[in-house]
Amino acid sequence: MAEYGSLLSDLSENITNEDLEQLKSACKEDIPEDQSNNITSSKEWFSYLEKNDKLAQDNLSYIEHIFEISRRPDLLTRVIEYRTTVLKISEDDEIDTKLTRIPSAKKYKDIIRQPSEDEIIKLAPPPKKV
Fold this sequence. Notes:
Layout: H1 2-13, H2 17-26, H3 33-38, H4 42-51, H5 61-69, H6 73-85, H7 91-101, H8 109-112
């Protein structure tokens, strides 16, 4: 899938060496230290994640999480745009998918979804001071 390669290339161009160290640190539980030290570029980092089933063209949730905790909303936004435009997976579908992976979480699906306009409690404006 050419779009997936373009996404990784685009992300790689926007990850500095300093960023890479931060990203590797954010996933230190999933990458042993000796292997982490061998990763010297963002392309190698993506490759490692793919080989270890943390990243695939139709599975981006791991890097979304890493970009989120690493405070890189710019990278996260690009991944979400790819997911919604190329894969046609909406935020609601993603929540459904994540919840089906955790059997005990299914009961929380209604809590997690966004309320509709009818469900939102509207407050009256504060009284004006006289």
